[in-house]
Specification:
Elements: E1 12-14, H1 20-30, H2 35-40, H3 44-65, E2 66-71, E3 77-84, H4 96-109, H5 111-131, E4 136-144, H6 153-167, E5 171-176, H7 181-187, E6 191-198, E7 203-210
Parallel strand pairs: 4-5
Antiparallel strand pairs: 1-2, 2-3, 3-4, 5-7, 6-7
Bound molecules: coenzyme A (COA).
Amino acid sequence: MPNQPINLPPQLAPLREGQISEAAYVLGRAFQQDGMFTYVFPNEMARARHVPVIMKSGIRYGFTYGQATVTQGVIHGVAVTAVRGRQGATTAKPGWTYKLRQLMTRLKYGRESWRRYQLASAAIRELHVRNISGPHWYLLLLGVSPQKQGTGLGGVLLKELLDRADRDNLAVYLDTFKRDNLSFYQKYGFEVKQQLSIDGGKAMAWAMVRLSKRT
Ligand SMILES: CC(C)(COP(=O)(O)OP(=O)(O)OC[C@H]1O[C@@H](n2cnc3c(N)ncnc32)[C@H](O)[C@@H]1OP(=O)(O)O)[C@@H](O)C(=O)NCCC(=O)NCCS
C-alpha cells in the first residue's frame, strides 16, 4: 500500500495522495535556484514552469514505492525517500506510456535543455551506482518553501528519516547539485563520497552517504 503511515513527530505527517500537487508546488519553488535546474533550464520562466512537474513525478514515485513526508497543515516542507537494493523492493518498469511521456517532455524542453537533462540524470545514476551498494534509503527530494528556509523545518524532516533509517539499520544516500547543502548534510552525519563535474563544469554534483548509527 503506498505511503503507509509511520510514527512521526507532531510537526510532520505522511503525504496524502490529494496533497501531491501542493507538495510539488512547494518543492518546485524550493528548487528554483538548485544547481541542476539552473543548468538544465537557464531561462527563469522555463525553470518555473518545468521544475514543479519534475517534482511531481519524483513525489509520485516516492509516494508509491517509498515514503513521502510533509509538514503538518499547510505544506512548507517535503521529504521523499525510496528504499534501494533491498530484495523484493519494487522498481518502476518503463513501458510504452513512459516512452511516450519521455518524447513529449523532450519536445517541451527543447533540444538544449533536454540534452542537459539527460547529462544531469546520467550523473545522478553514475554517482548512485558508484558510491553505495546494498540496501539503503535514497533521499530523493528534500525541500522547504523559500520563505520558511532556515527555520528548522528541513532539519526536522531530515532527522525523522535518519531516525527511521537507524531503526531499519540502513545507510542513507543522497545527491545534491548545490555546494551550500554540503554543510547542512554534514551536520547530520553525511560524508561527501564523490564530486562530479558535468558538461565541462557547467554543473557540479556531490554524492553523500550516512551510515546507520547501528553499524
Ligand atoms: C536545504 C534545505 C532543505 C534545508 O532546510 P531548512 O529548513 O532551510 O534548514 P534548517 O532551518 O533545518 O537548517 C538551516 C541550516 O542549513 C543551512 N542552509 C542550507 N541551505 C540553506 C538555505 N537555503 N536557507 C537557510 N539555511 C540553509 C544553514 O546554513 C543552516 O545552518 P545552521 O543551522 O548551522 O545555521 C532548504 O534550505 C531547501 O529547501 N533548500 C532548497 C532545496 C534544496 O537544495 N534541497 C536539498 C536538495 S539535496
